[in-house]
Amino acid sequence: MGYSNLSTQQSQRKRHWLKRWGVRLVILAVLLACYAGWQMWDIDRFGHSDDGSSADCAIVLGAAAYNDEPSPVFKERINHAIKLLQEKRVKSIILTGGYGGTEGRTAKFSESEVARDYCIENGVLPEQIYIEKKSQTTKQNISEAKEIMQGESMSSALIVSDPWHLKRACSIADYYDVLAKPSATTTSLYTTQKSQSQFIWKEFLYLHVWRFN
């Protein structure tokens, strides 16, 4: 009888323990879901927060180039920077992006070289353009752009990319002490809810990798 009571008490304690930790795990999951939802909302909000201000330059974050042509996504970023120049919101454009590659082959032209040619074809004066050909990541884009800014005595920038890329990019700029504000493309090719959600989710992950790296 005593053994039976002890076994029952142990069973009850185990159920109580499992229930208690089950509740805690549910609460934790809800909190994490709320945090992720809030962060992704803020990524979207931040990317659409261009306040119309001016700066010394526009930093165009690199994207793929196909041989001597910018990819559609890259082209929209370059077009937006050209528009900022035409509106006199910036005085010059810094084009970033090194040599990409597929299947082990290195591209003939860097992304920034392709972007420079595109800018000139669309009426931008060569003396208004600066390029770097080393970067492969957003962090490197910003770091290399900072070197150009320091060399040319530029003190402020508008960072140009797709909206959902800009919170992380501006966070990196802040880390490098680059005075920067976001200026997103208004004609992003990520038009479907699915593609936008995938971009935001990816940036949520990348942002937190960057923060805790």
Describe the structure using short key phrases:
single chain; 213 residues; alpha/beta; Rossmann fold; five-stranded parallel beta sheet; two-stranded antiparallel sheet; 9 strands; 14% strand; elongated
Q: Any idea of the CATH topology? A: Rossmann fold
State Rg.
Answer: 24 Å
Please bin the fraction of helical residues: 40-55%
So, the CATH homologous superfamily?
Answer: HUPs
How many structurally independent domains?
1
Apparent shape: elongated
Sheet/helix structural class? alpha/beta
What are the secondary-structure elements, in order, as H or E? HEEEHEEEHEHEHEH
The share of residues in extended strands comes to: 5-15%
Number of strands: 9
Structural account:
With 213 residues, this protein is of the alpha/beta class. The protein has one domain: Rossmann fold. Helix content is 54%, strand content 14%. The protein is built from six helices and nine strands, in the order αβββαβββαβαβαβα. The strands form three sheets. It has a five-stranded parallel sheet with strand order 7-4-1-8-9, sandwiched between helices. A two-stranded antiparallel ribbon has the order 2-3. Strand 5 and strand 6 form a beta hairpin. Helix 1 crosses helix 6. The longest helix has 46 residues. The protein is elongated. The termini are far apart. The relative contact order is 0.15. The model has no long low-confidence stretch (mean pLDDT 86).
